[in-house]
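Quick log. Single chain, no ligands specified.
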Amino acid sequence: MMSTIFAHGRRLFTTAAIATLLLSVLHLFGTSRPVPPEIDGIAQAMQNTALDMGFGMSPSMWDTHQAIAYTMGITLAMMGVLALALAATTDVSAKVLTRTAAVMAAGFIILTALYWILRLPPPMILFAILALLWGVAQRTTRLA
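-> predicted structure:
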């Protein structure tokens, strides 16, 4: 498996997958950290504001925020693991890897643009790096 995952044409694809997985770990770690004192008032207000969502459920705005934050980390993890599974499978053609890398690059370009618009530098920079990695992987997977 290790020889397949790092085979010629799959190395950068595997690197981009590992980087995506690493970002998910960092995101989940950051999400699980305590609320910084400077935004404690905001967090308290979010915890005290509930929304009726039906089914007898009324999550607070904080619950909604946490759900979205954890969803992002878990989704990034799924993307990274799926890409590693594809890279490790010998039956997967270079064309499938190229198309997968193209989809990942496009998605990370869109996320980079979103965080540019929202003026949030840390995720913008990280997503730009992943867009670049996946973009180059798209070119190199043609050799797999």
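DSSP finds six helices and no strands in the chain.
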